[in-house]
Amino acid sequence: MVFTATSLEELAEHFAQLPGIGRKTAHRLALYILKMPHEEVSALANALLTVKEKVRYCSLCANITENDPCIICSDPKRDHSLICVVEEPNDVLAIEKTNEYHGLYHVLGGVLSPLDGIGPEELKIKELLHRVSTTHIDEVILALNPNVEGEATTLYLAKLLKPFGMKVTRIARGLPVGADLEFADEATVTRALEGRIVI
Amino acid sequence: MRLVQLAIETFRNHFNTLIDFSETGNIILGNNGEGKTNIIEAISCLCLTKSFFTPSDAIITMFGQPGYTVSGIFKSDCGIEYKATISYTKVNSAKIYSLNRKKIDHLSNVIGLFPVVIVSPEHAHITFGGPQERRKFIDGALSQTHRLYLETLLEYRQILKQRNVLLMNAREKNERIDATIDPWNEAFARTGTLLLVKRKEFVSEFRRYFEEAFAQITESAEKPSIEYQCTLDIGDASAQEEIEVLFKQSIAKHFVNETKMGFSLIGPHRDELLFSINGSNLRMYASQGQHKSFLVALKMAEFSYIREKCKETPILLLDDVLSELDTRRATNLLKAISSAGQFALTSTERDFFAKFPQSSKSWKIIEVKNGSICYAN
Question: Which of A3, A47, B177, B295 is the most exposed place for a label (fewest CB within 10 A)?
Fold first, then answer.
């Protein structure tokens, strides 16, 4: 149903397809675009196209990048014998922000979930195995989310990586920093106890 | 835990009902269809975040109303007061639970805060119905007392779903899943073992409470028994590590069959709790009255079990339990519950309670007519 102008409705329709945007917000955004100065709108349109044209996946780590290999993979100062396996590009950002990790990454693009039709073929697992078999890697860190699917993927990868002879580790699960033990839920406390370390 | 006051708004046939409860016995009287059970259902919503009757909140909402609200004031055994409110709105099907005016983030965090034991005709399925009803009984009792059990159970169900999809793919599309199912088997065995260990522990502890309750209600020489039947062959193994190893062996043994069937054939989700009286299977041979006595004893035992584990006396809700019991068993039951803690019991027979001296002294009689309280002493 078109109440205003066809082109405005069409734009709103496109916005509504984006994740987290409902019909009302889509209309509000479309109206806002209409009020924006012409040059800002064309800058936005350009940005949309550029991102689609320029950004691609790094042929080594499968992270998003404009130059292949990506800045992280081509940085000679980083430790090239260390790979941290994560689910999504967002997770790379999260780890990079710490400034404490200086190895490389490998972005899987998801986790195993038969319910959603995601098997090993749909993830960048073959690429990971190719990497560890062709370059010298000392350690692979599995940094997947601690939910049912993340756990299964961790187990799956650990089994595949073990025969290559390098160290395979996983990130710790347990209490977040700054949290109080008394407010943590039972599952978290149990995991934290399981993952205790000698000091 | 005791419920001191309950306010129900646009819930089933209660438009706006406020009830002050006695901290001992509460007898809810009324004819059929007046709204007695609805009060019990409202209490269950407040304690367990959902009705014991139906999973649909839209059905519970009064016809033509946008949602419902139930709030109550609880008092713990040591005298601390809690104000809890659960409200549901149909439009966005949102359920909000607040405790002392603070919103609770996850509804599952409420389970166990206000321990409750409910006995209603709905629960007859526990002794009459299929094995899933008895598993639900164990899961319910353990979830209220062991938080980690509930978490593991939710995890296990998700793993099971994922694993079944793989097995179904193997069956329908002839996919080779030997390698891909491996991590799921691992997780399946780990969580399944945890559930199994807890359930076995539960049954062996629970037996004592149960036999006591059954003897008290029936006053007979009947010998009841409950036995946990495992789909896995774990023999006498009791250590967690030992069971996990056997679990994995079992998975390997059944794998070919599972790919033929397309779902998981073994695991705690297919186990059975076997009930019998004098050695014969309750489900097949027992009379209606025996079923009811067994059920009531199970629930009374659950009550004692929760009280001991949570260090808090549960609230006992009895919906129409006296109807199939003979006078002696009914009298025994009332005697047993009157010393247990707070209870609320629905009935259509006013005269029955006149025999009890407590009924005139400390018990509260609440009469319900057409969704409102028409008499309360």
Answer: A3
User: CA angle B223-B239-A169, nearest 5°?
Assistant: 145
A156 interaction partners in chain B (CB closer than 8 Å) = 180, 182-183
Contacts of B88 (CB under 8 A, 6+ apart): B57, B60, B61, B67, B68, B69, B94, B95, B96
Shared domain for A12 and A104, answered yes or no, is: no
pLDDT tens by residue, A78-121: 999 999 999 999 999 999 999 999 999 999 999 999 999 999 99
Specify the number of domains making up chain A: 2
- Return the structure tokens found at A47: 């940005």
Whichever domain contains A194, its CATH number is: 3.40.1360.10
**Strand ranges across the sheet with B14-20:** B14-20, B2-11, B67-75, B81-89, B94-99, B102-103
Report d(CA A120, CA B214) in Å as an integer: 54
State the nearest Cα–Cα gap between A94 and chain B, in angstroms.
25
Mean pLDDT of B284-290: 88
B252, containing H or E segment? helix B240-261
∠ CA B153-B269-B145, rounded to 5°: 40
B367 CB-near residues (< 8 Å, 6+ apart): B28, B29, B30, B373, B374, B375, B376
Query: Could you tell me if A187 and A96 lie in one domain?
Result: yes
Is A147 found in the same domain as A73? Answer: yes
| ipTM score of complex | 0.71
Which domain range does residue A19 map to?
A: 6-54
Residues of chain B in contact with residue A122, where contact means CB-CB under 8 angstroms, are none
- Structure tokens of B66? 């946008």
Chain B nearest C-alpha distance from A123 (Å): 13
Percentage of residues of chain A with pLDDT beyond 70: 98
